[in-house]
Write a structure and sequence with these properties.
- Strand 12 and strand 13 form a beta hairpin.
- The chain has 432 residues and is of the alpha/beta class.
- Helix 9 packs across helix 10 and helix 10 packs antiparallel against helix 11.
- The chain is 38% helix and 18% strand.
- It is built from 15 helices and 15 strands.
- The N and C termini lie far apart (69 Å).
- The longest helix has 19 residues.
- Strands 1, 2, 3, 4, 5, 6, 7, 8 and 9 form a nine-stranded mixed β-sheet that branches.
- It folds into three domains: 175 residues, Spore Coat Polysaccharide Biosynthesis Protein SpsA, Chain A (Alpha-Beta Complex); 88 residues; 101 residues, NAD(P)-binding Rossmann-like Domain (Rossmann fold, 3-Layer(aba) Sandwich), CATH 3.40.50.720.
C-alpha cells in the first residue's frame, strides 16, 4: 500500500450501536487515499467484532488493553499515523461524502493554513437538530478561545508542521474538552479556518460525554482552558474575576450569581481589552470588538433588568466599537408622529430601551412594551408592563413602534396591521 495522504483517527469505546455507520461514512468518501486507524479503548460490547467484520486494507485496528481515555487513545492513533494530513472522526458521527476531498483540496491550495474544519449538523435518531457554524477567520477563531472553541473539532491538519512544534499530542491529564485544549495551545504561526458548509453530522445521544451526567467534568476542564487563555492575554485572574469571566462565556451563568453587578462585568471586559492591547496575544482590533460584542450580547440577554444592565453598557469604554444603536431620529420628527398618542414599544432588547429613553425624555405617552416571546416570563421593565402580541385587543393603543431588528419585523408589522386595523404600526425606518 502506498503512503496515505490522510490518516483518519477514530477512537472507539462501547459504540457498537453507531460505529458501523461511522466507518461506512469514512469508506464512502470521494477522496480515497487514506488510512483509517481505529483505536479501541477497551470496549466491553461487540464494537471490536463489528470492526473486524470489515475487509478493507485501509483499516488498521489498535486495541488498548484497558480504558485509557480519549486523549491517550487519540495520541496512540497520532503516533501510528503515516499521512501528511490527520483528521479526527468520532465513532458515533458521520462524515458527509465530500468532507475529506474538500479539506484536502483546501490544505493543498492554501499553504498558509494549517488546520481546516467545517460546519456541523447535529442530529438524533429522530431528526436534525441545530447547526453549528464556525468562523473561517483565523484571528477571530484565536480570539474566541478565551470564551469558546470556534474551531470545528473534526478538523484536518498538517501533521509535520504541528509535530515540528512539539504540539501534536493531547495533554493526557484532560479527561474532557480535549479538542479545546489542543486548539488552545496552538501558537500564532499555526493558522485556522473552517470551510463554510456542513460536511459533518454530529450525533446527539445519552451516552456522550457532553450529557448532564458528566457535565461537571466537561465544565471543569473547559474552565481550566479559559483560565490559561486569560493568563496568556496578560492577566492572572482572581477567583472573583474567573466567575465574572464565565458570565461572558455562558450568559446564563449570571443567573447563578443574581447579585453580581453588571458594572463588575463591564470593568472586567475593559480590563481584558486593555491587557490584550499590552500583550498583543490576540489581534487587537478583532479581540476588542469581540469582547465588546460578548458584553453587549450579555446585556441584551438580560435586557428585562432595565437600568441595572444598560447603565453599565452606557459607561462601557468601548461601546463605540459596535453599531447597535437605533439610528438618530430628530426630536421634531418623533414629536410630529407621536404627540398626544398612546404608544406601545414592540421589543425588549437594547434598541427598545434606547427608544424608551428617547420617548421618556420627550414626555410622550408610553403605555407598555410588547415581547414577542410567548414563553417569556417577563412582565415588567423599569416600571412598564410587558405584554404579548396576542394581548393587543385587550390593551389598545394608537401606535405600535417596532424596534425588532431582524427581517421578522416586516411579518410582525403585517400581522398587526391585518389583525388590529385601528393601530398604526411604525418601523424605525419609517421615522427617517
Amino acid at each position: 500500500m502506498n503512503t496515505p495522504k490522510v490518516s483518519v483517527i477514530m477512537p472507539s469505546y462501547n459504540c457498537a450501536l453507531y460505529i458501523t455507520e461511522a466507518i461506512d461514512s469514512v469508506l464512502s468518501q470521494t477522496f480515497k487515499n487514506f488510512e483509517l486507524i481505529i483505536v479501541d479503548d477497551g470496549s466491553t460490547d461487540n464494537t471490536i467484532e463489528l470492526i473486524e467484520n470489515y475487509n478493507d486494507k485501509r483499516i488498521i485496528l489498535i486495541k488498548n488493553e484497558m480504558n485509557r481515555g480519549v486523549a491517550t487513545t487519540r495520541n496512540i492513533g497520532y503516533k501510528a499515523s503515516k499521512g501528511e494530513y490527520i483528521v479526527i472522526s468520532d465513532s458515533d458521527d458521520i462524515n458527509l461524502p465530500m468532507k475529506f476531498e474538500e479539506q484536502v483540496n483546501y490544505l493543498d491550495n492554501h499553504e498558509d493554513i494549517d488546520i481546516v474544519g467545517c460546519h456541523y449538523q447535529h442530529f438524533s435518531e429522530l431528526k436534525y437538530l441545530q447547526k453549528w457554524a464556525f468562523s473561517d477567520e483565523n484571528e477571530y477563531i484565536k480570539s474566541m478561545r478565551l470564551f469558546w472553541n470556534e474551531q470545528a473539532p473534526a478538523s484536518m491538519f498538517r501533521k509535520k508542521k504541528i509535530e515540528s512544534l512539539g504540539l501534536l499530542y493531547h495533554d493526557e491529564s484532560y479527561q474532557a474538552a480535549v479538542d479545546s485544549e489542543w486548539f488552545s495551545k496552538m501558537p500564532k504561526e499555526i493558522r485556522f479556518t473552517n470551510i463554510q458548509k456542513v460536511l459533518y453530522l454530529y450525533r446527539r445521544h445519552t451516552n456522550q460525554m457532553t450529557q448532564e451526567g458528566v457535565q461537571n467534568t466537561q465544565s471543569k476542564f473547559v474552565d481550566k482552558i479559559r483560565e490559561n487563555m486569560i493568563v496568556n492575554t496578560g492577566i492572572v485572574p482572581s477567583q472573583f474575576e474567573k466567575i465574572i469571566h464565565f458570565t461572558l462565556c455562558d450568559y446564563t451563568s449570571v443567573e447563578r450569581y443574581p447579585d453580581l453587578p453588571f458594572i463588575e462585568i463591564r470593568n472586567w471586559a475593559e480590563k481584558l481589552i486593555i491587557a490584550n492591547e499590552e500583550s498583543k496575544f490576540n489581534e487587537i482590533n478583532i479581540f476588542s470588538k469581540l469582547v465588546a460584542r460578548r458584553f453587549f450580547e450579555l446585556c441584551n440577554h438580560f435586557s428585562y433588568q432595565g437600568n441595572k444592565v444598560w447603565n453599565a453598557w452606557e459607561e462601557f469604554k468601548y461601546k463605540h466599537l459596535l453599531d447597535e444603536e437605533v439610528k438618530l431620529i430628530p426630536d421634531e420628527v418623533i414629536l410630529k408622529l407621536l404627540k398626544n398618542k398612546s404608544v406601545a414599544i414592540f421589543g425588549t432588547l437594547r434598541s427598545a430601551y434606547i427608544l424608551l429613553y428617547r420617548l421618556q425624555r420627550l414626555n410622550l405617552n408610553i403605555s407598555y412594551l410588547i415581547d414577542n416571546n410567548l414563553e417569556s416570563s417577563i412582565t415588567e421593565i423599569d416600571g412598564y408592563s410587558v405584554y404579548r402580541i396576542d394581548e393587543l385587543n385587550r390593551k389598545p393603543v394608537d401606535i405600535v413602534i417596532m424596534t425588532v431588528q431582524s427581517n421578522n419585523r416586516y411579518l410582525l408589522k403585517s400581522y398587526i396591521q391585518t389583525n388590529h386595523k385601528k393601530i398604526k404600526t411604525l418601523l424605525i425606518e419609517d421615522f427617517i
